[in-house]
Amino acid sequence: MEPDDAEKPGAFLSHASEDKPGFVEPLARELRARGVAAWLDKWEIRPGDSLVQRLFDEGIAMADAVVAVVSQHSVAKPWVREELDAAAVGRVNGESRLIPVRLDEVPMPAPLKHIFWITADRTPEGVVHAAQQIADILHGHDPRPAVGPLPTYARVAAVAPGLDAADTVLLTETIREALRTNDMRLLSWAAVKSRASDAGLSDQRVEESLHILAQQDHVDVALRAGSVHNYHLTRKGYRAGIATLLPKVEEHRRAVIAELTNDQPTGSTVIDDLAARTETPPLVVEQILNDLQDQGQLSYHCNLGNSSSLDWVSPTLRRLLD
Asked: Are strands 227-233 and 219-224 parallel, antiparallel or unpaired?
């Protein structure tokens, strides 16, 4: 054994001498080429050595695995049977692996029947195939494909009771479309669905989440012939998910209130003016004004197009900044 062999996984090859030239020795060479210190009697035992000591005390006892080559020649060999018995004991004790390699489609001996074995044939390709499988086992190679990153929807936290991550993705994409168009009505369902699909949601999951959002009044959906005809975001849906896309929405709210109290805009483009002053999306400004109007803090109205004007602002509005 070479000095650096001790740093590599070792494999003892139990076999019949008849199988050595055509299969076992080529297998041992292929194993060593793959970083496995294959222990083959032909290479390890010298004249005058004690067979029992070299085979059992050094070969089998020191190996990380016993590779049992089971063939028509080896099944009835007493010597091979003794090696198998020693290997089985080592496996039970957790000291080493027992890796059967089956040739000639022979019946497996009783000690090996309940162990997964490698089936090989007596060809160069069969030798390489067996060696690669053994090397993969001893080097700890995991044959399973790598697990990819989680899809977007699985990394999203639910934003409201009754909604799961997939529902939240669909709601978030609905709000994103509303912010893009500065309108919560007549949204493009095709655009929302496309982005939800890009996030990893299947068509079935999109349909299920759409039903949940509509059921809980986060969206308003009108169907025609089984397809989405009109698609609207509700104020409830906006409130539930806006912080996902705009984490500093409360800062925007305070900035809008500060402008309303300190330098109240006039004219017919109040929403756009406040949006420009506070660097807040116009849709968000509109919803802030709607909330303040519901609270009795102001009155405003929107006309056709982008026209919007203030009717009245409460003198107590500034207290919301305290």
From this structure: antiparallel
Query: DSSP letters of 289-302?
Result: HHHHHHTTSEEEEE
Phi, psi of 188 (to 5 degrees): -80, 105
Q: Report the pLDDT averaged over residues 126-146.
A: 90
Q: Which residue has the tokens 């004690």?
A: 50
Q: What is the pLDDT of residue 148?
A: 73
Element (H, E) at 33: helix 25-33
Res 44: pLDDT = 74
- Other CB atoms within 10 A of residue 159 CB: 20
Could you give the domains of the chain? Answer: 8-138 (3.40.50.10140), 152-242 (1.10.10.10), 246-321 (1.10.10.10)
| Alpha carbon distance, N-terminus to C-terminus of the chain | 82
Question: How large is the average pLDDT for residues 28-53?
Answer: 77
Residue 321: what pLDDT? 92
